[in-house]
Amino acid sequence: MPIKGSCHCRATQFELPEAPTGLTRCTCSFCAKRGPLWAYYPAGAFKLLTARDRVSTYQWNSYTVQHHHCAICGCGTYTETPEWVDGKPDFSKLKIGVNARLLDDFDIDALPVQVIDGKNLW
Protein backbone atom coordinates (compact mmCIF):
# COMPACT_ATOMS: atom_id res chain seq x y z
CA MET A 1 0.00 0.00 0.00
CA PRO A 2 1.44 3.41 -0.97
CA ILE A 3 2.61 5.75 1.76
CA LYS A 4 2.94 9.52 1.55
CA GLY A 5 5.13 12.03 3.29
CA SER A 6 5.77 15.75 3.36
CA CYS A 7 7.84 18.49 4.86
CA HIS A 8 6.54 20.61 7.75
CA CYS A 9 4.80 23.21 5.53
CA ARG A 10 3.62 20.55 3.03
CA ALA A 11 5.16 22.42 0.09
CA THR A 12 7.22 19.31 -0.66
CA GLN A 13 5.18 16.11 -0.84
CA PHE A 14 6.15 12.64 -2.02
CA GLU A 15 4.86 9.11 -2.31
CA LEU A 16 6.42 5.66 -1.96
CA PRO A 17 5.00 2.32 -3.12
CA GLU A 18 5.11 0.83 0.38
CA ALA A 19 6.16 1.56 3.94
CA PRO A 20 9.79 0.90 4.83
CA THR A 21 10.72 -2.23 6.76
CA GLY A 22 13.92 -0.85 8.26
CA LEU A 23 15.67 2.47 8.80
CA THR A 24 19.24 3.73 8.71
CA ARG A 25 20.89 6.29 10.96
CA CYS A 26 24.12 7.69 9.55
CA THR A 27 26.79 9.27 11.75
CA CYS A 28 28.40 11.48 9.09
CA SER A 29 28.73 15.18 9.94
CA PHE A 30 25.72 16.14 7.78
CA CYS A 31 23.31 13.49 9.10
CA ALA A 32 24.48 13.94 12.69
CA LYS A 33 23.47 17.60 12.56
CA ARG A 34 20.14 17.07 10.75
CA GLY A 35 18.94 13.90 12.49
CA PRO A 36 17.14 11.99 9.70
CA LEU A 37 16.28 8.32 9.78
CA TRP A 38 16.69 7.10 6.22
CA ALA A 39 14.45 4.64 4.38
CA TYR A 40 16.02 3.56 1.09
CA TYR A 41 14.19 2.85 -2.17
CA PRO A 42 15.16 2.30 -5.81
CA ALA A 43 15.13 5.65 -7.62
CA GLY A 44 12.08 4.68 -9.70
CA ALA A 45 10.00 3.95 -6.59
CA PHE A 46 10.10 7.56 -5.33
CA LYS A 47 7.47 9.94 -6.68
CA LEU A 48 7.72 13.68 -6.01
CA LEU A 49 4.13 14.96 -5.90
CA THR A 50 4.88 18.68 -5.91
CA ALA A 51 6.78 20.96 -8.26
CA ARG A 52 10.55 20.43 -8.31
CA ASP A 53 11.06 24.17 -7.72
CA ARG A 54 9.82 23.65 -4.15
CA VAL A 55 12.94 21.56 -3.52
CA SER A 56 16.45 22.92 -2.89
CA THR A 57 19.58 20.81 -3.13
CA TYR A 58 22.76 20.76 -1.07
CA GLN A 59 25.89 18.92 -2.12
CA TRP A 60 29.15 18.84 -0.25
CA ASN A 61 32.66 17.46 -0.49
CA SER A 62 32.68 15.02 -3.45
CA TYR A 63 29.26 16.09 -4.82
CA THR A 64 28.33 12.39 -4.90
CA VAL A 65 25.09 12.68 -2.92
CA GLN A 66 22.33 15.23 -3.53
CA HIS A 67 20.67 16.19 -0.25
CA HIS A 68 17.25 17.73 -0.93
CA HIS A 69 15.24 19.93 1.40
CA CYS A 70 12.11 22.04 1.19
CA ALA A 71 12.91 25.46 -0.26
CA ILE A 72 10.30 27.03 2.02
CA CYS A 73 10.48 25.43 5.50
CA GLY A 74 13.92 23.81 5.21
CA CYS A 75 13.03 20.23 6.24
CA GLY A 76 15.48 17.68 4.89
CA THR A 77 13.26 15.52 2.69
CA TYR A 78 15.23 13.03 0.57
CA THR A 79 18.62 12.25 -0.92
CA GLU A 80 19.72 10.87 -4.25
CA THR A 81 22.75 8.64 -3.94
CA PRO A 82 24.51 6.00 -6.00
CA GLU A 83 24.87 2.43 -4.79
CA TRP A 84 28.34 1.77 -3.41
CA VAL A 85 30.28 -1.18 -4.82
CA ASP A 86 33.68 -2.05 -3.37
CA GLY A 87 33.88 1.40 -1.77
CA LYS A 88 33.16 3.27 -5.00
CA PRO A 89 29.95 4.93 -6.24
CA ASP A 90 28.09 3.19 -9.07
CA PHE A 91 26.13 6.01 -10.72
CA SER A 92 24.26 3.55 -12.93
CA LYS A 93 22.44 2.32 -9.81
CA LEU A 94 20.81 5.25 -8.03
CA LYS A 95 18.73 5.02 -4.87
CA ILE A 96 16.63 7.45 -2.90
CA GLY A 97 16.96 7.93 0.84
CA VAL A 98 13.73 9.30 2.26
CA ASN A 99 13.68 10.99 5.65
CA ALA A 100 11.28 8.59 7.37
CA ARG A 101 10.53 11.20 10.05
CA LEU A 102 8.39 12.91 7.38
CA LEU A 103 6.15 9.94 6.55
CA ASP A 104 2.47 10.57 7.23
CA ASP A 105 0.70 8.36 9.79
CA PHE A 106 3.70 6.10 10.25
CA ASP A 107 5.28 4.80 13.48
CA ILE A 108 9.05 4.96 12.92
CA ASP A 109 9.66 3.68 16.46
CA ALA A 110 8.28 0.28 15.42
CA LEU A 111 11.13 -0.35 12.94
CA PRO A 112 14.68 -1.57 13.49
CA VAL A 113 17.40 1.05 12.95
CA GLN A 114 20.77 0.16 11.47
CA VAL A 115 23.62 2.56 12.27
CA ILE A 116 26.13 3.34 9.52
CA ASP A 117 29.47 4.78 10.63
CA GLY A 118 29.49 7.57 8.03
CA LYS A 119 31.75 9.61 10.28
CA ASN A 120 34.62 7.24 9.54
CA LEU A 121 33.61 5.78 6.16
CA TRP A 122 33.65 8.96 4.09
TrEMBL record:
Record domain CENP-V/GFA: where: 3-122
Entry-linked Pfam families: GFA
Keywords: Metal-binding, Zinc
InterPro entries the record matches: CENP-V-like, CENP-V/GFA, Mss4-like_sf
Top-level taxon of the source organism: Bacteria
Family stated for the protein in its record: Belongs to the Gfa family.
Name of the protein: CENP-V/GFA domain-containing protein
Species, as recorded: Inquilinus ginsengisoli
